[in-house]
Specification:
Layout lengths: L18 E2 L2 E2 L25 E7 L24 E5 L5 E6 L5 E4 L1 E3 L6 E13 L2 E5 L4 E2 L6 E22 L6 E14 L5 E14 L15 E7 L4 E3 L2 H6 L8 E2 L2 E11 L5 E24 L3 E7 L7 E7 L2 E3 L7 E6 L7 E6 L14 E8 L7 E7 L4 H4 L5 E5 L4 E10 L4 E6 L8 E7 L8 E7 L4 E5 L5 E5 L2 E2 L23 H10 L21 H14 L10
Parallel strand pairs: 3-23, 24-31
Antiparallel strand pairs: 1-2, 3-6, 4-5, 4-19, 7-18, 8-18, 9-17, 10-16, 11-14, 11-15, 11-18, 12-13, 12-17, 19-22, 20-21, 20-23, 24-25, 25-28, 26-27, 26-29, 27-28, 29-30, 31-32, 32-33
Amino acid sequence: MSESGSATKKPLPRLGLSHISGRPSWSRKKLPRVEPLESRVLLSVGCPVISGYVFLDENANPALTNNGLFNPGELVIPNAQVVLEDANHNVIETTTTDANGHYQFQKMPSPSDQSTTVTQSVSIPSTLTNFSDKALSPAVQLFDPSLGTLTSVTIARSVTFNSAVTAQNLSQNSSAAITATFDGSYQLNGLGAPFSGSLSTSQGPEIAGPFDPNNPNGNEIPPFVLSQTDAPSAMTFTDAATLAFFTSSAGRTTLTPTLSATGAGTATAPNGNLAISAMTSVLGSATISFTYIPKECITPGQYYLVQTPLVPNVTDGKASENGVVFSDPGSPQTLALTVGNTDLPNNDFGKLTPGSITSPTPPSCPTVESLVRFGVHQQQSQLIVTFAGTVDPTKANDPSNYYIFSSTGQYIPIKSATFDPTSNSVTLIPQKQINVHYRFDLSVTLPCANGCDKVVVPFGGKDSLGGFTNHQGQFVPVRNGRIASGGASSSPNAQAGRTPHVAPASRTQQLADRLVTHPYAIPTTAGVDMTGLASLPAHQRLHARRALRIATFAKSLPPIY
């Protein structure tokens, strides 16, 4: 804080979304949801209200993604700045979205620049010293920014010390010239910067006669009453840091100043033979004045709403004015408004996370033809992405060109990418295992030499599973969510390419395939009809007979996972 005339401006705290490089900190798990959505229509009291939302225009229903409308279930973006401009694009007012992604403008600064001042006082009654951090009352009401633009804060203070000193000469042989003195100091805290002062005064000498033991009160003199006040000139502050300190915000509307004071009175005489008693108290007050330019209603006319600066880690999407969608609102996003005497709600700015929308693929870029995942449970997850078209091997082998998002917004990076030119496919190894039962999206930066377009490939569930390794270390192929006929093979890479459709196996065959993965598997040479049982060891014959009995109920078996 600095006084006017020698102001040292302090930078205001930076506003905006905190984020982690590469991913927004307001992940899908943490952002508040508005569901079901109800349009917020504000009842203006004599002044039209301009309002709307800043939101992530991505929806579980693909048809509602990037449609420019704030639909139920879509995430809001708090702390996004929105600017109100006049017809000539001069900035009138700025605001930020609240925790629900909502913003509004109701009034604007008066063009006349005619200021208004409001004053409030706080005080502490007479209190014996010494004490620390005694609260002044009532609490100071911080400036309400809806009233207008705060231009200065003026603070005046007054602190008074009172000390009553009683002294009696105890010398029986001589009179005493008694002088009373007082010294004190104080500090006023809680008003942005400490205000302090030191005071001292004296009174006397007063002549006191010798002490007579037969008349102990005979030489008493009247008490010394010392009073000292510190009331310096008021101080006016106009720097940005002080104005921000005295402006109310969400959860902070008042402040309570405190006073600390020390002080004491005493008395002295040349002979130094005195009986002294003293009582010291202090009282104080402060006056705080806010000078501001009042706001007035937004007058009818042409205005612009601009969402700037860009919210970190998102891109601009579409925008809308009360249901009317604008596919290209410019950069930064801008909406033109005509203000009359009624409210203008639902002026909404849609945003998108990078890669959330599949961009048109240039002819020179390959396309993703298929995605197959391998490995279940504790086995290493692998994704084999097959491309159609010319692939840039350098970009295809770059793990940073791929990443996975779960349905809850969890980000899963890729730790390795290996391109196979013979099959025109790349094998991806995620940094963690991928649950075979859940749904995911794979973002792919297409590996083309002259572009960086992204596509999003959904996958997950048993339908995208290409195979797994059984207990004997053999690879078991899976097609259409079922174990494929033909038994186990030695490598998943042989299963990664495009293959013709294989009809679902019979229930008996499914049972046999399931037994292949059992720790005591029946050799496939025994056949599904369990012929050649006599040549099998006893424990395998037992399992074979059980399988034969179970086969009669094969129609009730669930699909093979």
